[in-house]
């Protein structure tokens, strides 16, 4: 049985989550609820939960501030948040569990199952999340990739390009060791674009800093730092040249 705490400032959201857990998550026992960061910290220290459902945006701080204030994080976290580009991107970088408001029952059950099955090292994910939030240099951002053996932690600047492979994405890294990740290229496109990446083709997402040469043509192609020659779609050519200031 997973012992849980809800930390959420909206009473209606706490009630919804409480009811959903009671009806659809039989393996979760709710120990306490809190409506702000300070009460949440107290509840964690008193109850020593296995899992915390943590709202990201709250008055007088946010869920990340709460995590920063703890001496250690020895519980699993499922972030609960309205769609915030900043918060979601940070959480996605770390491969942490999260569900969006309004809460979808299937997403809630899936997130709880991940924790229950121990499919990811959530403690490591949370450490990376907090490190990224403290880091002001985008290219120094760390990204957690879920692989069969667990989690692979890489620097964004070490990614040369990403390649679509059906519902998988193959990461090509500076060390020459590719990683196949069970997520679509579109998923990583949204995540990596703010870090200097560009979708130049339906199959390619490239790190603009790793382009060694652009070769002209209808769309042309780029030669990357690992010697990979990647086609550029004609409708992406102008945008690419603009970004390269050519």
TrEMBL record:
Gene3D superfamilies (UniProt xref): 3.40.50.2300, LytTr DNA-binding domain
All copies of domain HTH LytTR-type, residue ranges: 143-246
PROSITE patterns: HTH_LYTTR (PS50930), RESPONSE_REGULATORY (PS50110)
GO MF entry, a single one: DNA binding
Keyword Nucleotide-binding: no
Modified residues (4-aspartylphosphate): 55
Keywords: DNA-binding, Phosphoprotein
Protein name in UniProt: LytTR family DNA-binding domain-containing protein
UniProt organism field: Splendidivirga corallicola
């Amino acid at each position: 049985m997973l012992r849980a705490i809800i930390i959420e400032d909206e009473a209606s959201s706490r009630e919804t989550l409480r009811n959903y857990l009671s009806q659809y998550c039989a393996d979760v026992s709710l120990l306490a609820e809190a409506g702000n960061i300070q009460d949440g910290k107290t509840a964690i220290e008193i109850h020593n939960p296995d899992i915390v459902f943590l709202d990201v945006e709250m008055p007088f701080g946010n869920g990340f501030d709460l995590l920063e204030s703890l001496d250690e994080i020895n519980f699993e976290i499922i972030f609960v948040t309205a769609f915030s580009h900043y918060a979601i991107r940070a959480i996605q970088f770390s491969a942490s569990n999260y569900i969006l408001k309004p809460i979808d029952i299937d997403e809630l059950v899936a997130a709880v199952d991940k924790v229950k099955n121990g499919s990811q090292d959530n403690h490591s994910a949370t450490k990376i999340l907090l490190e990224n939030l403290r880091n002001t240099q985008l290219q120094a951002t760390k990204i957690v990739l879920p692989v069969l053996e667990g989690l692979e932690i890489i620097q964004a600047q070490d990614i040369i390009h990403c390649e679509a492979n059906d519902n998988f994405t193959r990461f090509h890294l500076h060390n020459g060791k590719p990683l196949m990740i069970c997520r679509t290229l579109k998923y990583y496109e949204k995540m990596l674009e703010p870090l200097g990446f560009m979708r130049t083709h339906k199959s390619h997402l490239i790190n603009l800093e790793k382009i060694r040469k652009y070769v002209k043509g209808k769309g042309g192609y780029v030669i990357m730092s690992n010697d990979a020659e990647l086609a550029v779609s004609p409708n992406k050519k102008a945008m690419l040249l603009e970004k390269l200031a050519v």
